[in-house]
Write a structure and sequence with these properties.
heterodimer, A: mainly alpha, MetI-like fold, two-stranded antiparallel sheet, 2 strands, 1% strand, B: alpha/beta, Rossmann fold, six-stranded mixed beta sheet, four-stranded antiparallel beta sheet, 26% strand
């Protein structure tokens, strides 16, 4: 009996370990293969002129400068709009209301919105911003559409981060004579900032990579955007059009590789910035 | 005049009554121990004195609590002002995820103090009173979380003292601490009563005996008796008090 008790979990343990390792390795292997393949095909295309020149001849020649600018502009617009709204909503849900019908409606809407395919957002953006509000294909239309698309993610990750801040922080702050706002701003927010920024960074990645919603609202012109009201073409859309219309597979891979690098860079920069900020805060 | 007068305090969470008909006078510049087995309503009692239970939506209070003769539930009483006058230390150390300095300066900053020199002065004074200054004076900018449990709790005491309160409530402040840290906190409390009125829920009868001037025994939400510590611990009038302090139950 003694033997059995010892032997059984060991075999189970080993099997479980093997399964878990295989699963993890498989996932990583697939990811690495895709990234390596795209980089291998795309990196040789990337050069200084590819980065700095506007596409010519439908994208067969020239670079992708205008699509980089369009992508960054539309992403920036979306984040600037969605972040304060999302964090505000999250604080409202987590700190200012009791559980009730209103919070349930907001949460249910946010969860439903998170599950809608992005092309539906694109269609809505096209009908509402582009047509009805007459903004046309523009950075603003695209940014607003993307903002609505990422709002649920920002709200949910922020709320999650706020809820996990220990109750004792709030009690301490109140017991030291803090008002509700002071408590949220000085005790809760700094502790939740890591989780909140994680959600925002995730959203930046989705904006940069989004194709369908942006295609319908930002447009697909290759000209360099000059203002919030200019149309443009994001890198993902550029890549899609180059590949699907068989214009230039070579440049498509170049754009794709650049897209991967850009997302990687944004993640690194954002994470470093947050870490610095937190370190600085802890010291101050 | 007594610092705090409590008249017929009744306290409920939803339908459950946790304090029954409690009346008590708290003298200024004394240490009052409110002791008893757990679930006697002691934490609730302490939290009613600075209205921290306001955070709990299901809580309901009846009765009168006067601070310097003024009803703390009166409409013109500012809640933040009340909590600055009646500071509180919790049963587990609760440093905020900030530096030592920022933790102690948290209260004064909420009150609008901005000058670094002024804050520094307050922080040093508070840390000295809490007997922590010597151990941390050279590293005020390290995270408070990196201190030991005993140091963290003294930091929490300092954080309350930095508010320059009139009353300090301590809810089993030594429950998770080693004997040396406990001794340090007790020592500083005996110093502090010269300047503050102290109400403490001690973590055992022995501690109550060591530090109190007055002692109150609570059982199932009732105040069984309150008297000078000497009387309570040597010659209690009520047999239940006697049974508890001699260890027959609890």
């Amino acid at each position: 009996m003694d033997k059995n008790m010892k032997a059984k979990p060991r075999i189970g343990d080993k099997a479980a370990k093997a399964v878990i390792w295989t699963a993890a390795l498989l996932v990583i292997a697939v990811l690495v293969c895709i990234i390596l393949y795209v980089l291998a095909k795309g990196l040789p295309v990337i050069s200084w002129s590819f980065l700095t020149e506007v596409p010519r001849n439908m994208g067969r020649e020239g670079g992708v400068a205008s699509t980089i600018v369009s992508t960054l502009l539309v992403t920036f617009t979306a984040i600037v709009i969605a972040t304060p709204l999302g964090i505000g909503t999250a604080f409202y849900l987590a700190e200012y209301t009791k559980e009730g019908i209103i919070t349930r409606i907001i949460r249910f809407s946010a969860e439903s919105l998170a599950g809608i395919p992005s092309i539906v957002y694109g269609l809505f953006g096209f009908v509402f911003f582009v047509e009805i509000l007459g903004m046309g294909w523009s950075v603003l239309s695209g940014g607003l559409t993307l903002a609505i698309m990422i709002l649920p993610t920002v709200i949910r990750t922020s709320e999650e981060a706020i809820i996990t801040v220990p109750k004792s922080y709030r009690e301490v702050s109140f017991s030291l004579g803090g008002t509700k706002w002071q408590t949220i701003f000085r005790a809760v927010f700094p502790s939740a900032i890591r989780g909140i920024t994680n959600g925002v960074i995730l959203s930046v990645g989705r904006c940069v990579a989004e194709t369908a919603a942006v295609y319908l609202t930002l447009g697909s012109t290759l000209r360099m955007p000059t203002s919030l009201f200019s149309p443009g073409r994001s890198m993902a859309v550029h890549f899609y059009l180059l590949a699907s219309e068989d214009i230039s597979m070579e440049n498509a891979y170049g754009t794709a590789a650049l897209l991967i690098i850009l997302i990687f860079l944004i993640n690194v920069v954002a994470n470093t910035a947050v870490n610095r900020m937190i370190a600085k805060n802890a010291k101050r | 005049m007594n610092k705090i007068s409590i008249e017929r305090l009744n306290f409920f969470y939803k339908d459950k009554q946790v304090i029954r008909d409690l009346s008590l006078e708290i003298e200024a510049n004394k240490i009052l121990s409110v002791f008893g087995p757990s679930n006697s309503g002691i934490t609730t009692f302490l939290r009613s004195l600075n209205r921290l239970y306001d955070l709990v939506p299901e809580a309901r209070m009846e009765g009168l609590i006067l601070l310097d003769g003024k009803d703390i539930h009166a409409k013109d009483v500012s809640l933040t002002e009340l909590r600055r006058r009646v500071g509180m230390v919790f049963d587990v150390p609760t440093p905020l995820p900030l530096s030592i300095f920022d933790n102690v300066a948290y209260g004064p900053r909420l009150g609008g103090v901005k000058s670094r020199a002024k804050l520094m002065e307050t922080v040093e004074e508070a840390l000295r009173m809490a007997a922590l200054w010597d151990e941390v004076q050279n590293r005020l900018d390290i995270p408070a979380m990196s201190l030991s449990g005993g140091q963290q709790q003294r930091l929490c005491v300092a954080r309350v003292l930095a508010l320059k309160p009139e009353v300090v409530l301590l809810d089993r402040p030594c429950s998770g601490l080693d004997p040396i840290s406990t001794a340090k906190i007790e020592e500083s409390l005996c110093e502090l009563k010269k300047r503050f009125t102290i109400v403490i829920a001690p973590h055992n009868v022995q501690q109550a005996g060591r530090i109190s001037d007055r002692a109150a025994f609570m059982l199932s939400g009732e105040l069984v008796e309150e008297d000078s510590a000497q009387m309570i611990f040597s010659n209690p009038k009520n047999s239940r008090t006697n049974d508890y302090i001699t260890g027959r139950f609890g």
